[in-house]
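SAMPLE LOG
Freezer: B-3
Tube label: C17
Construct: single chain, 268 aa
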Amino acid sequence: MIDEFEYSPSAFRKLPRSKKIELMVRWFHEHFEDPAVRLPYESAEGGYQWIWGGPYSADEEIQSEFSDVASFELMQEAVDQVQSDGLFDWAPVADSQSDDDTSFEPSAFDLDDFTRTRRGPAPASKEDLDRLKSAMLAELAELKEQLQLGLHDYGMIGHNQPPGPIDDSSPVSAQDAQQALNAIAVIEAEAEKAEPTVTTVGASVGSLRRMATSIAVWLRDRGNAQIDAAVTVVLVSGGALYGQRLLALLNTATDAVLAWLQAFPWPF
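STRUCTURE (predicted):
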């Protein structure tokens, strides 16, 4: 789909050489943009913060999309045009992520889907279970530390105000952070049982993934709001970097919990 018009492979192959190059360049710019448009930038962290994936290469993306319908030479001409201004690292355009802007968000936990894809009746060895449990608890401990750091740094503890976002630079509220800590405590308690309750663990994983989705939306919205340098400085100096780190930890921690839960014999 280019300019809202879908070209079949045969139709594309019949186009004049110049039109093919033009359409490949246009396709690329419909899906990728200069990272300066929306991404936070932090020199201390190595430059742009690629919160929606990337950096993307024109060479790789154009070849991936058009290698079946265009020659290597033609694709390289399109790449040269894309890179003619000296930009080689690209970010995804917001609308190209998905029609509803949710493709960057963590997937929700679905207990029914989880049980359908569980392991067979043969259990993992005790050594495997212990290893997965240790890995899970380590991930949860790191996530707890990050949540508690946020509570401290953003003044979420000890204030007399109702729970809520401390200010626009905070990706989570005090209430959300405490709920996440409570969910972690539930999982840790279940980990001490010989037979953890799947629904209980699943509810906690779902709570953590909802927080991850909320943070992902917050990061997206702040990225879209970066119109001038002043906004960028505020975002990068506080909540955005914290939010990026917290989002990554939420994803790895919940993945570790599910890996541990999957290793148990079923049913139990």
